[in-house]
Design a protein that fits this description.
mainly alpha
Amino acid sequence: MPINFTTDFFLSVEKPVDKAFNIVVLVRSFMAYIFLVMYEDFGARQFKFLLINTRL
C-alpha cells in the first residue's frame, strides 16, 4: 500500500514524465513476463519473486 501511494505521488508530481514512465513500466513488465515464460524451467520461481518485489 505505501509503495502504491509513493508511485502515485511520484506520478502526480512528475506530470510531463507520466506517459514515458508508464511506457517504461509497461515495457519492463512485458520483458519480465517474456523472460519468465522462456526460463520457466530454470527455477524461475525465486527469480519471479525477486522481479515482482523489485517492480513494486
